[in-house]
Structure formats: C-alpha cells, structure tokens
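User: Fold this one for me? It's Protein PsiE.
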Amino acid sequence: MAKNNVGIHERLQGIGREFVDVSHYIILFLISVVVVWTAGKEFFVIFQKGSADLKDILLLFIYLELLAMIGIYFKTHRLPVQFLIFIAITALSRHLVVDVQAVSDNFHLWLLATISFAIMVLSASIVILTWTAKMFGRPEDYLKDHQVTSTEHHLPCVDNEQSLK
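Assistant: Here's what I get for Protein PsiE.
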C-alpha cells in the first residue's frame, strides 16, 4: 500500500510541475506579446512625430530588455534578476533625463540626488550579484542535486569505479 501512495504522490508532483511550467510559458508568451505590441505602438508614435527623442529611445531600450529577459527564460529556464535591475536602472535613467526637468527648483536637487543614489545602489547590486555568482555559483545550479526522480527510489547506488572493475 505504501508503494501505491508513493506512485500517486510522484504522479501528482509531476502534474504539478507540468502545470507550473505550462503556466510560466503561457504567461511569459502573453507578456512578450504585450511588450512587442506596446513597443510597436511606440514606434508608430515616433514615426508620426517624425523624430525620436531621448525619452523614446530609452523607453525602447526598456522594451528590449524586457524581451531579452523573457528570451533568456525560454532558452535557459532561468529568470535572471540582473535583467530586472538593468530595467530598473534604465527606467530611473529615463526618469532622470525626462521627468526631473519638469520638477520645481526647490525639489529638483533632492530628487536628482535620490535617483542618482538609487542608480548607484542598483549598479552595486549588479556587481555583488555577478561576483557572488562567480564565487559561489547560482542557486539554480544546485537544483539538480536536490531533485529526486522516481527512478532514484528504486535503483541501488552503484559506484562508477566498482562497475568498471
């Protein structure tokens, strides 16, 4: 009876993993469609104006980074946090270049300093994440070590050196 319960448990785990994987793919596909659609609308606005401002170009870079992040997930099944930080840095840079000019003179300096500090903190976090990944590896690198497949329950452990003798 215990073997029967293990089989049900493993099947339900497999169904759950498949459901999560399919959900990830559907949602990421829909997000990529929305990003491409929105970028297309932005291109249309640029063509109607006849020129592109710096704010338009920076916005297109944000769309490009979003698509690159989604593409990396489809290729590697990893969602790199660094790309989210790059997007945040680009968005803050865009805000710094575009929106800070419209702020009053009294608040201008504090807003400029705060956004600049946030960009520096995000840049430092990229450096730290990259360094720790090189030094210690990424958490997803160790997932395969901790996952147990259904065949591992039933097969005896065989040492490669013993099997060659």
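One thing worth pointing out: The mean pLDDT is 80.
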